[in-house]
Amino acid sequence: MRRGLFFVILTVLTLSLVACNGEDSKKVEANTISSANLTEREEVLLSGPADQSFVFDFNAGDQYKEISVWVEKYESGKLVGKLNRMSTEIKNTGMMVFSTAKVNEENNQSRFSISVHSDDATSTAWSPEAMKDDNFSTVSGSNTLDNISIKDKSIVLASIAYSNSEEGPNGLTNEFYEDINSHMNELKNYDVVYLLRCTFK
After folding, report:
1. Distance CA 54, CA 114 (A)
2. How far apart are CA 97 and CA 199, in angstroms?
3. Considering just the CA atoms, what is the radius of gyration of the chain in Å?
4. Helices vs. strands in the chain: H and E counts, helices first
5. Which of 189, 198, 182, 179 is closest to 75 using CA atoms?
6. CA dihedral sign, ordered 33, 35, 40, 46
7. How far is the C-alpha of 151 from the C-alpha of 11, rounded, in Å?
8. Residues 39-89: pLDDT tens digits?
9. How many other β-carbons are positioned within 10 Å of the β-carbon of residue 85?
């Protein structure tokens, strides 16, 4: 029942954002992806069912016909799994929504969801994930670069990081998003990191 309700809310949310944001994705430069500029109304819509959410607009032009999206999980800097791997066809422009929502307070279980909307079609993938307890500090962030080239095969769009250090997490640097391969050592500073990644084909 709760799972069905979650998907209804997620679908309504995605459709609402698409209705409000459809023209914005067409304004994005060809062959790029960028964080969406959300209105106050859109941010309120997202804050209802989701604990954390990230929205991106993309313009794949005529060259790219498919997008693959997934979440990588790292523990102390080591890759331990991939969540929600999804590939779907796209046509020119579109939008991607990544969100987390707590579904069970007792065991800190959350649901990770990814939705991709393009050419009047929406594809969604989700998975449950046991999150760190309240003793851990958390910080999230997204790629702040405008017009990220989708020709890059190492795109990182967003992150959620957990740490139990007394100082608390500071968040991944801009340099990490710009060149992940040269800054993987940053992940060692956290107990757990989730990275939202994508590639276009």
Report:
1. 10
2. 15
3. 16
4. 3, 11
5. 189
6. positive
7. 29
8. 888 888 777 777 889 999 999 999 999 999 999 999 999 999 999 999 999
9. 14
